[in-house]
Design brief:
By secondary structure, the chain is an alpha/beta fold. It has one domain: Rossmann fold (3-Layer(aba) Sandwich). It has four helices and eight strands. Helix 1 packs across helix 2. It starts with 5 loop residues before the first strand and ends with a strand. The structure holds adenosine-5'-triphosphate and magnesium ion (MG). The site of adenosine-5'-triphosphate (ATP) has 21 residues, from helix 1 and helix 2. The site of adenosine-5'-triphosphate has 21 residues, from helix 1 and helix 2.
């Protein structure tokens, strides 16, 4: 299995701003205010550890279908990558899942479905930059897209996308998260 798995990186050259040097989970910050569509029924989970967040994502992955697009919203250090790790595990992918600096998209193959893991944090040019990497080829490739910082190219996100909002209040509790899936 491991030999079949491969993680590929797709970079775009004009995007070079490193992610803010903000410390992650221990950074005082208010909860995310990203909007959750109110016309859909939402599922709400609470998590008190990264393991629990990953387990919630793993469960979600069991029911994932080809073409699913999952937008992961939340402040720096909320747990979007932790969620992606659990999700990949749920699809049977056993390799490393990270959001490395300067990488816009990684492909994880070898699980039940291919995973296209985007991190749009540094996408200064919005949808235009995303077009530069031919994002639609991945959105409609029959795998699952996990997209961190989708707000950076909101207009490119299909109406059918699932939104996972990970809310944190680091002032109150470093490990508590509210996860709203809609
Ligand atoms: N309940 C929790 N759920 C998820 N992560 C948690 C939780 N409690 C603590 N953490 C910690 O918070 C951090 C989340 O980091 P992660 O890289 O997943 O954040 P992120 O949302 O992807 O940030 P970024 O926007 O920088 O990509 C990890 O260090 C993780 O261990
Ligand atoms: Mg991340």
């Amino acid at each position: 299995m491991a030999a079949r798995e491969k993680a590929q990186n797709v970079n775009i050259s004009n995007v070079s701003t490193p992610k803010a040097n903000t410390p992650k989970a221990n950074t005082p910050s208010s909860a995310s205010s990203a909007s959750t569509p109110i016309n859909k029924l939402a599922q709400v989970f609470t998590s008190t550890s990264s393991d629990i967040t990953a387990d919630i994502a793993e469960e979600l992955a069991y029911t994932a279908s080809p073409g699913d697009i999952i937008c992961l919203v939340g402040p720096l250090g909320a747990g979007k990558t932790v969620f992606a790790q659990g999700f990949a595990r749920g699809l049977g992918y056993t390799g490393r899942v990270t959001s490395p600096t300067f990488t816009i998209m990684q492909i994880y193959e070898g699980g039940r479905l291919p995973i296209y893991h985007f991190d749009l944090y540094r996408l200064e040019g919005g949808v235009e930059d995303l077009e530069g990497i031919g994002y639609e080829d991945y959105f409609y490739a029959g795998g699952v897209c996990l997209i961190e910082w989708p707000q950076m190219a909101k207009d490119a996100m299909p109406k059918t996308a699932k939104w996972v909002e990970i809310q944190a209040d680091f002032d109150k509790d470093l490990e508590f998260r509210r996860i709203v899936i809609s």
